[in-house]
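Protein data sheet
==================
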Amino acid sequence: MKISTENTVQAVENSSFAQVMIISIDEDQAGQRLDNFLIARLKGVPKSKIYNVIRKGEVRVNKGRIKPEYKLMAGDSIRVPPIRTAEAGTEAKASHQMMSLLSKSILFEDDGLLVINKPPGLAVHGGSGITLGLIETLRQMRPEARHLELVHRLDRDTSGCIMVAKKRSYLRHLQAALREKSAGAGGITKVYQALVIGDWPKRVHQVNAPLLKTEVAGGERVVRVHPEGKPSLTEFKLLQRFDGFSLIEARPITGRTHQIRVHAQYVGCALVGDEKYGNDEVNEAMRGQGIKRLFLHASSLSFYLPESDVITRVDAPLPPDLAIPLGKLPAAS
């Protein structure tokens, strides 16, 4: 039985279902990840349950098994299995403090886009034991904005610029732009600031090294440079030297998981505060100096808005938890 998208969404939000649902994707909904689409519509269903039914193949797109990160296309048909929603009113509520913080963290806004200066420690979305992330909080803050979606992601400990689309047309435009190599070609330029351990080599202006995701003991996932990995390119610029440390600028040309962190480690200059790829002894010492998390900040974004030939640049200054201890580091001798 085929059910219209509008009716299906209304039903899912208010009931538990004992029958299969079929959802048809239209042009306005295209471009979203499958997991994000279902999370936004299956109100009250734990995210772990949604990912579980996708992994088990109970959710199908065009009658085939599919991965959570699949980008939906117009005309796709999604099969959703019988699934029980939670009782109304059980969804976690964002705190007034967090909503106030995010309201003050808006760096740019127009009819179709928000750019937020994401606070450190806030996940971009819920899951894996996290009840509410950035996107869920924004949806509670803006209930009238029906199409809020993340354009890209930042790690939980990374602060700085992140884009949230308010319209599907902006989401499609900006995600296509992310696949471009440079802002000058109509793409998006992301710039980060990072503090690394040691003296950054003057000769290193870029790292072109393939990255491979692997799983180690205990199920932990790590990324490493490996010839069988995906092509990965990061451009680097030395900003300032300190005694035993270097402040650098990193511009990822490709968008691999942990790319900046692993490429910096590959050069021999791991990021300060990096518990996965860094130096535990140095990290512990730097916590005593006030740097208590990963020193990685998305400092600027440059992009073209739809139907505009003028580049828009948005900047986010280093937050106090990084800027204050950085200002106390002794300069290089």
